[in-house]
Each structure stands twice: as structure tokens, then as C-alpha cells.
Amino acid sequence: MKKSRKIAISTVNDEQIVEAWFDQNSKQSFRQSLLKWFRVHRREMPWRESRDPYRVWVSEIMLQQTQVATVIDYFRRFIRQFPTVQRLATADEQSVLRQWEGLGYYRRARQLHAAAKMIVAEFEGTFPATVDELLRLPGVGRYTAGAIASIAFDESAPILEGNTVRLFARLMGLTEDVRVSKTQKILWRFSERLVPAKGAGEFNQALMELGSLVCRDRDPNCRACPVARSCVALSLGTQREIPVASPKFEYESIREAAVVLRRGKNVLMRLCQPSERWAGLWDFPRYPFPHGDPVSNLTRLIKKDSGLDLELDEERLSLRHAVTRFRIELKCYGGRVRSGRLKRNSAFQWVSLHDIDELPLSATGRKIARSISAFF
DNA sequence: AATTCGGGGTC
DNA sequence: GACCCAGAATT
């Protein structure tokens, strides 16, 4: 008897911690308080000006792992150039990637483009309107499907992302690592139990807005919180210790070299291959920084890969940047071609200075391109 | 269950 | 520097 009771208590940490919260709190009054707050503090955002599923979809893809402030201008430009799903579907991928340049996670742009073609072809232009249909689109996972279905189609679908993870963890007083799947499951369950049958779109946006503006990562503003009375963390004074999250990765410092090789008005560029970082984007020829004499070693590397006979100058530009789990120190060299022709089906290609503006580059590639006059 | 995939904001 | 951001797909 005592034994089974003990087991029951330890399993409270799992699914039933959710039920414990709902036992202690009225979800109707929680929803009311939240929506009342949201109607006052709701921020204007370009994708909130309509409920056009296409625009909601584009915004949700852009917002994956990307802050609202960063997305706003990208969204405006993207919708200006690709105002409908049909226009996106018939665009070429390079122009889509060009609009995405600087946002990062470029797979999102390629999948968005692929999904637009799917919608036009398989759904005959009728936008997928349910979570289950939306999940068939590449780049659309559980969060994004729930967000689109609820915001654009008023489906009662739950969401879970950065803001709501933090909010829910504090509301329940969750002290477990929110990155492990067991905790994710608890958080999804919480979202499922909380989402209303009607008005889920507004409700979900209100949750995220509260997480973003009030239940902030650092410095949560509990005095301004409309649902403070439902917050276990606040009642225990542990709101600053929650959420607990294991580190995502450790940084590794690496050094690279890039080369701006000129031939007349053209510059040697390389199309990043599908298996590489920046797939589909253009980059300057780039290598791990060679040991020994960088100029002579780089000259040999480029000659081997491109087939060109060339002459390199000294270092002209040094950039530091971080990408994924790497801190990169990138040194850039200028150079001229003496003779030779490009190898066939190497990813290299001569690009005129003017055309570089139209190509999608990585953020560092664009920095090099902008200071290209320093190499001539 | 881990890793990959960017880049900028912020303290 | 270190962590976060309206995550998804792959290994």
C-alpha cells in the first residue's frame, strides 16, 4: 500500500503534473485573463494584417528560430515579390533564396518553395486547411501546422515553441530539462489541455505574446502578468530558475580562407552543393586555413580544384562570425588568373561583378562581396 | 536521442 | 562570450 503510493507520487512528475495544474486553476478564467491582456498589448505585425493562409504560412516558416524583429522586413519584401502561393510556386529557386539571404536556415526557403509547388499541384491551389494536411508540407512540423491551422483556419490546435515552453514551464513549476523529449511531451499535453475550442488562433498568439513581452527569458515581469495567480514558479519564487535547459552545443573555433579571384570583370564563385552548408547558395572559394605559407598553399588548392593557373596576393580582409556551432575566423585573399580554363562540372563558375547582386550568398559571402573593391 | 542547419540580438 | 529566438529534418 505504501509502496504503490510512493510510485504514484513519483509519476506525478510526468503526465499528471499537467492535471495537477488544471485541478488547481480554472482554464476559463485563465483564458479570459490572457485574452483581455492580449487585446490591450497585442503588437502590430505585417502578417497580422490578414488571415490569408499563405501569409500566415510564410510568416511561420520565417519565424522558426528567428526573432520577430528580424523577420518583419524580410516578410514584407517576400510578400511583395511573391504575393500568392501561385507566384511563389512558379518562381525560380535562386530568386527565392535571394529573398531569404541573411535569414539563415536556408533549407526553410527551399522547402517553402517546394511546398508551394505541392500546394498548387496536389492541393489544386486550395490551401491545406487542417493540421494533418499541413503536416504533409515540407518544413511544416507540429508547431507550424498548429499555428497555421489555428490562426488561418480557426482549428482548435495546440502549439509549442520557445515562448510557450518558457511560459508553460513556469506556470507548472517544471524543474526538468525542457529539451528532453519526456518534458516536451508534458508541455505538449499542457498546450492540448489549454487550447480553446473556438478562437484558438488568437489564444495561441496571446500565449506567445505573453511569453515574449512578459514571461521573458531574463527578467520576467511577473508584476505585469495577467495570469500570475496561476503560476507555480512565481508562488515559489523560482521564476528565474525556470526553464531549465541543457546546453545546445559547444562552440568550436576554426579558421578558414576565402579567395576573391578575378579575371577581367568576372569573379570566381562556387555553387554550394546539396550536401553542404548553404546548399543552393553561392560562395567564394573557401578552404580550411592551410598550414605553412597560406598564399602558396591556397594557390595550389585552387589550381587543383579549378584547373586555373593563378597568382594570389596577400590577405585583404579578415572576418569573424559564428555559424551553427562554429566560431570562424575567415581570412580573405585577392588574386588574378594567369591562364587556363575552368574544369568541367566543377561547382565553380565565373560571375560578372554586376550579377553578384542577384545571386543568393551566405551572410559572410555578402560581406566579402560588399567589400570586393578592396581586392582590386 | 543527437546532430545539423544561420545569423542576429542582447546582456 | 554565452544564450536565445513563433523548429524541422536527418542520422
Summed up, what is this model?
The chain is of the alpha+beta class and 376 residues long. It contains 16 helices and seven strands.
Task: Tell me what the structure shows.
The chain is α+β, with helices and mostly antiparallel strands and 376 residues long. Among the domains are: 42-157, Endonuclease III, domain 1 (Orthogonal Bundle); 252-375, Nucleoside Triphosphate Pyrophosphohydrolase, CATH 3.90.79. The chain contains 16 helices and 7 strands. The protein has helices spanning 2-11, 16-24, 27-41, 53-62, 68-81, 85-90, 93-100, 107-121, 131-134, 142-153, 162-172, 181-194, 200-213, 232-236, 294-306, 363-370, and strands spanning 252-263, 266-271, 282-283, 286-288, 309-323, 326-339, 348-352. Helix 3 crosses helix 13 (200-213), helix 11 crosses helix 12 (181-194) and helix 11 crosses helix 13. The longest helix has 15 residues, at 27-41. Mean pLDDT is 94; it is low at 1-11. The structure holds a DNA duplex (11 and 11 nucleotides).
Features:
376 residues, 7-stranded mixed sheet, 16 helices, 7 strands, 45% helix, DNA-binding
**Could you describe the largest sheet, including whether it forms a barrel?**
7 strands, mixed
Low-confidence segments, given as residue ranges, are 1-11
- CATH topology name of the domain at 252-375, in short, is Nucleoside Triphosphate Pyrophosphohydrolase
CATH superfamily of the domain at 252-375: Nucleoside Triphosphate Pyrophosphohydrolase
What class do helices, strands and sheet pairing give?
alpha+beta
CATH class of the domain at 252-375: Alpha Beta
Kindly state the mean pLDDT as a whole number?
A: 94
